[in-house]
Amino acid sequence: MKPQLLLASRSPRRAQLLRQAGFAFRVHPTDLPEQPAPGQAPGDYALALAVAKARAAPAGGLPVLGADTDVAVDGEILGKPRDCAHALAMLARLSGRTHQVFSAVAVVAGDGFDSVLSVTEVTFGGIRPEEARAYWDSGEAADKAGAYAIQGRAARWVRTLRGSYSGVVGLPLYETCQLLGRFGVTPR
Fold first, then answer.
1. Is 78 helix (H, G, I), strand (E, B) or coil?
2. Which CATH number is 141's domain given?
3. I want to staple 81 with a disulfide (CB 3.0 to 4.6 A). Which of 41, 87, 99, 185 is the partner?
């Protein structure tokens, strides 16, 4: 099937979600530094990085989709864990409280671009230290924003979710479909 767009991401979760929605695409990962500026708001950071990823990929005549997903608590972006201790500290901070997941999507096509931001509130129940350690040992937390994957074992900690489940996974599908539609790209 002829590709409709280029996905500027190496995330298998984003690719799976795009396929699930019915899009045909090629993947071209971009490697950009992922470090927010001091004091940068989580939503602003997610949008800026999504746009930068979309602009960094060679379009080859196709619209380019870039995305970024960040977990924040108390306005602080948690990022991806550097090591076990960092992951355990993140999970302890998320335990028994609400945090926000900012999932930004940007499309660049020719000289035009547009972007959208989805913000989802996720409330975790308590996470015991031994549960957090076992979760780290499973390997699932290693490369995930906020040190968890909602579509995996961490789902057991989710008490409530208000917003986009797919946005927490890594690509808010409703918003993505609306955005791509503005560029004439619709699911097949």
1. coil
2. 3.90.950.10
3. 87
68: annotated active-site residue: yes
User: Residue with structure tokens 């992951």?
Assistant: 87
How far is Cα 105 from Cα 31, in angstroms, rounded to an integer? Answer: 16
Which member of 31, 68, 74, 111 is catalytic? Answer: 68
- What range does the domain containing 168 cover? 5-181
Q: What is the pTM of this model?
A: 0.95
